[in-house]
Amino acid sequence: METRLVEVQKLKKFFPIKGGVFSTTVASVKAVDEIDFFINQGETLGLVGESGSGKTTAGRTMLKLLQPTGGKIIYKGKDITKLTPNEMRPLRRNMQIMFQDPYGSLNPRMPVGDIIQEPLDVHAIGTRKERRQAVKAMMETVGLRPEFEKRYPHEFSGGQRQRIGVARALVLNPELLVLDEPISALDVSIQSQIINLLQEMQQRLNLTYLFIAHDLAVVRHMSDRVAVMYLGKIVETAENDELFDHPLHPYTQALLSAVPVPDPEVKRERIILQGDVPSPVNPPSGCHFRTRCPYAMPICKEQEPAMIEVSPDHTVACHLLTKK
Amino acid sequence: MAEEMVEITKKRQKKSSEDYTYVGMVFHRLTRHKLAMAGAAMLIVILLFVFVGPLIWRADPNAQIEGIEGMFNAPSKAHPLGTDDYGRDVLARMFFGGRISLFIGFVSAISSTMIGAIVGLVAGYYGGWVDNLLMRFTDAMLSMPTFPLLIALSSVIGKGVSQIILVIIVFGWMQDARLVRGMALSLKEQEYVEAARAIGASANRIMWRHLFPNTLAVLIVSTTIGIGSAIIYEASISFLGFGVQAPFASWGNMLQNAQQFIWKAPRLIIYPGLAIFMTVLGFNFFGDGLRDAIDPKLKL
Q: Among A120, A232, A265, B278, which one has the highest count of C-beta atoms within 10 angstroms of its own C-beta?
């Protein structure tokens, strides 16, 4: 029986736009608009979507790096939505994040040994000597030479910096790791190294991943289940193969048709979406995707499609499926 | 021949790896900055004058030569810079006055930068009403007329070196607070700050371990220039008679003392005036050069 490590229900994160003389909130960016998902212990949930779909915000809100506007975050059966930063601190040992930008995510004025050691310092784990030992061991584990601990981040390449990021995230031995586009800033040749490292770590330490990315091939390679986001909403969730082989939501279909196939003989139908992603300040009424959907119907404008389970573990939010 | 080449390459490699550290790079760029080097030269001259001078010329700065023949002596072998209205040796007074002026400059500039840094970090990191409160207070401090307040203040807290330092700190931290607040506002959006929050680091830790070290380069520049202005400030306060009190010398009160004899003995005004001018100019040149040297976008 699989246990749910973390679950979010109707999670919302709006960013206010202030304006006017008294800087009142005139509107808000609906970055994450009532999404539900869960991640089982030891699995990888891939979260895909184009830029601005809110996937990064969803990941950060789940870790309470951003205070949610609404909804619930349940971690190991405990509601952590309302916890204060002080109450969150002991939990932070178990949930970590790794960032996209290998340059912005490391303090340029700190030697990498100190960067990796900082989580241990914050949580006061072990003696100073033990911490140093743990840092060296961790550096070795992620494929960095321990004698580099005195060096500064700018002396490392992008791929090495991401390894430092992995080391910092894993030194506390967490259960849950949010990977916020960990490879999209890297060269293709380095990407596979980091992916392999992450998979190796997952097996060794029994980690649970939320893998945020827009590279579908990598998501397919990494994930057990995949959730697709569009304009602050999750439109489809399914098991990895199920989603890639039988996409049901028109947006997922369009997204998958954009993945290049390494075979020039294969003739495929490309679904080309018209127009741009609407503004998350004023998302379309009803279904958010209707303005670009090739199958849009009158009902899509009036009613928001509910998430329905079409087959076990495969849920879709689309009126096309409700009709059938 | 080949060995020689290897040797040369090795040396070059060593040199370039030194340049690669941040401090090494800044230092290297600084040595190429002509104005900064001119400033550094001036400062070295002043520091040698003030600290090594008294070891060579051992005269008591407060000893007076009694009688009218001791007053306003022209420079001579016995008194290289002559004597003042009390018959005291001007060179010795220049040494000790310089020490006091530099001491006041260093201590007050460093302390006011630290206070500015704390206010700026707290305001910038917390934002919201904390930021508003602190920054409006900073604005209020900036809009106060300093000198009238100073005169009023000195009647309350008295006159002397520590009082001057206190006054310069109280009226000197605001620019640094604004500077650091601006930097903290942009630095706190960096991902490494978010990473620190993700591991559960406290606000204090984030401010001092992550934000502060990244503002340090700019603060050093600001302190360097601040020393110059603190010396000017000390001179102005002493000139008004609220600063370092007789018989102790500072360059400022030497100026004040000399103004009544400006026609009789103009050299008494020229010496401390020149010393202040050179010191402040030296700190400003050096500070400007430092600012250019830490800015990697600037070609030097």
A: A232
User: Which of chain A's residues have a Cβ under 8 Å away from the Cβ of B196?
Assistant: 107, 118
**Residue A217 CB neighbours (<10 A):** 12
Kindly determine whether residue A122 and residue B201, on different chains, have CB atoms separated by under 8 Å. Answer: yes
How deeply is A83 buried, as exposed, middle or buried, from its count of CB atoms within 10 A (0-12, 13-18, 19+)? Answer: middle
ipTM of the assembly? 0.86
The per-residue pLDDT for range B27-53, each reduced to its tens digit, is 888 888 888 999 999 999 988 888 887
Cβ-nearest to B213 among A92, A97, A109: A109
Chain A residues closer than 8 Å to B213 by CB: 107, 109-110
CB < 8 Å to B22, chain A: 152
Domain B23-54+83-294: give its CATH superfamily: MetI-like (1.10.3720.10)
Q: What is the pLDDT of residues B193-212, one digit of tens each?
A: 999 999 988 899 999 999 99
Tell me the C-alpha to C-alpha distance, in Å, between residue A129 and each of B116, B136, B268: 36, 46, 62
Q: In this structure, which topology does domain A4-94+174-249 adopt according to CATH?
A: Rossmann fold (3.40.50)
CA distance A239 to A223: 9
- Please tell me the predicted confidence (pLDDT) of residue A263: 78
